[in-house]
Amino acid sequence: SQIVRRLRDYMAGGPGQPGPVDLAEVARDALGPHRPLWRSRSGLEVRADLAPVPTVTGNRSDLQRVVVNLLFNAIEAIGAQPGVITVHTEADAEQVRVWVEDNGPGISPEQQAHLFQRNYTTKTNGLGLGLYSASQIASQHGGSLQVESQPGVRTRFTLVVPRGHQ
Prior knowledge:
Structural class: alpha+beta
Distance between the termini: 41 Å
Strand content: 25-35%
Order of helices and strands: HEHHEEHEEHHEE
Strand order of the largest sheet: 2-4-5-7-6
Number of helices: 6
Largest sheet: 5 strands, mixed
């Protein structure tokens, strides 16, 4: 049901019009409605480290779908174990980044090489569309979706978007 809900939410977003987007606000809004997912889970902590960042030019609902997808994936990766998920925003002179990091089991280097391919999944009931779609959205915004994982330590997915013209 969670996969169907995520696909329905993704499809409902539509094309939209690009405009100025505050990725810290997008991340904050992505966290808000999904709090019941982790508040009811004993031992799961979600931390928001959302520094103010410059705006980017893009489709707000598409970018929010990426952050929500990364958050859901982190929750699923940790599973029933205690864990910590951190959502963080930062920027430099050229880019704005939102990363979602978890201390779940990690992703092997072999799996990392395929994560953004259509229909590739590491989940038993996955469709292989979530990270593929998220990567496509990042690319459509002139950015990228990156992964760093140390199996048994942590996994971090980073949405990178060029700074918007102000």
